[in-house]
Amino acid sequence: MDDAGLYREQILRHAGPVITGRFVGFQSSYTREVKVGQPLLLAVFVAAGIAQGLVALILATLRGGGRGPRRSFKELKKGPEYLVTPLRVRDDLGQTYEVEMHGYLPVSALHRGDLVQLRTQQQKDPQLPVKVGQVLNLTTLQPLTPRVPTLWSHLGPGLLIEAVVGLVLAGLLVAAWLS
Q1: Parallel, antiparallel, or unpaired for β 11-12 and 96-102?
Q2: pLDDT 10s digits, 163-172
Q3: For a Cys staple, 44 with which of 24, 130, 163, 167, CB 3.0–4.6 Å?
Q4: How far is residue 162's CA from residue 46's CA, in Å, rounded to a whole number?
Q5: What pLDDT band is residue 5 in, cutting at 50, 70 and 90?
Q6: Per residue in 113-145, pLDDT tens?
Q7: CA-CA distances (angstroms) from residue 54 to 32, 51, 62, 119, 142?
Q8: How much is the CA Rg of the chain, to the nearest whole Å?
């Protein structure tokens, strides 16, 4: 019986801020949720509600109907999900490092055996491997940055514009009430 099938390669998780080596490959991807700060979300939601209420009132008087359905606070509180893809890199000494890539990167950007330089940073949870901030493919000399959804992209420009309009309206109402 061959012992090669029983031997498992040791995967190193902790590494410095820069790892240089050959790209081994991607592991299975999964999603992770971005945490949303409730005080900020509540302020945006209430301010947008003021503007949406005023617009709905105007539309109801003009044409007898309102706008489409509004996303609930519960839906917004859930936060956006982003893709987490573990990837492995082998250095010149033959040591294999596993790091996490958060977000999206074109699949054609990295090929098995490419010489890469990874700029990494520690995550809040020390149990997790370091995450990749930027990948420099030294084989093609192409810098790559994974794209991650943010709180602002999750809320959307429509809700943010409504929040700004709602804050302005609330400010005007308070100023009119105080004078």
Answers
A1: parallel
A2: 777 778 778 8
A3: 163
A4: 10
A5: low
A6: 999 999 998 888 888 888 888 999 999 999 988
A7: 36, 5, 12, 48, 50
A8: 24
